[in-house]
Amino acid sequence: MSVCANIQRVRQNIPSHVQLVCVSKFHPNDAVLEAYNCGERVFGESKVQELVGKYESLPKDILWHFIGHLQTNKVKYIVPFVELIHGVDSVKLLAEIDKQAAKVGRIVNCLLQVHIAQEETKFGFDERELYELFEKGLLKECPNVSVCGLMGMATFTDNGEQVRAEFKTLKTLFDKLKRDFFTDKNDFSTLSMGMSDDYPIAIEEGSTLVRIGTTIFGMREY
């Protein structure tokens, strides 16, 4: 099936309030343009060099999301144009994004990554660390960062109930943080969970943003 047909099929399963990020990492510019010509404007990349190359060569109205594990020494390359950084998993990274954003006069949108999977390979904060972050007012020290919500990845497993439980945990934490720290702010509104294998469960559990690559573009060319 074509990229366009795949997008139409995915769109039928996504409610209007849920944002679709087309994960274009490791796919060529032609594939991105095919999705772009079907009306998609939000794309996700996980490697800084690849993201910068695509930003420079593809249409400028594309909203680029960085969805990979971001190293502090690479932040400066994407801060001038990135729409949203998904995986902010440390205070050190948050501070570096703020520093580089200040240099270019931007406020950069970020999601804090929460470790919900039963896998050591996934990065992220736990609930205690997030409460510490907010209670100590550390975000006030980063005026060039806007924390728009949370992101988490479920365990890579066929056990749908385990995946559902992990998403439920993240939604509960999202609601608690919103209630305790963001009652007067509307910008804490994004809950990113769900990818090609598990996005229907994620949407049922309250996701407002799904990241879909393989289902749209097919297997990646590494």
SSE diagram, text form:
Blueprint: H1 3-12, E1 19-23, H2 29-37, E2 42-45, H3 48-57, E3 63-66, H4 75-78, E4 84-88, H5 91-103, E5 108-113, H6 127-135, E6 145-151, H7 160-181, E7 190-192, H8 199-204, E8 209-212, H9 214-217
Parallel strand pairs: 1-2, 1-8, 2-3, 3-4, 4-5, 5-6, 6-7
Structural features, described:
This protein is α/β, with parallel strands linked by helices and 222 residues long. 39% of the residues lie in helices and 17% in strands. It has helices at 3-12, 29-37, 48-57, 75-78, 91-103, 127-135, 160-181, 199-204, 214-217, and strands at 19-23, 42-45, 63-66, 84-88, 108-113, 145-151, 190-192, 209-212. It has an 8-stranded parallel beta sheet. The relative contact order is 0.16.
Features:
alpha/beta; 222 residues; eight-stranded parallel sheet; 8 strands; globular
Instruction: Assign the CATH superfamily.
Output: Alanine racemase
Approximate shape: globular
Largest sheet, in brief, is: 8 strands, parallel
Report the top-level CATH class.
Alpha Beta
The total count of helices amounts to 9
Beta-strand portion reads: 15-25%
CA-CA gap between termini:
21 Å
CATH-defined topology:
TIM Barrel
Report strand order across the widest sheet: 7-6-5-4-3-2-1-8
Structural class: alpha/beta
Q: Write down the domain tally.
A: 1
The chain-level mean pLDDT equals 94
CATH architecture annotation name: Alpha-Beta Barrel
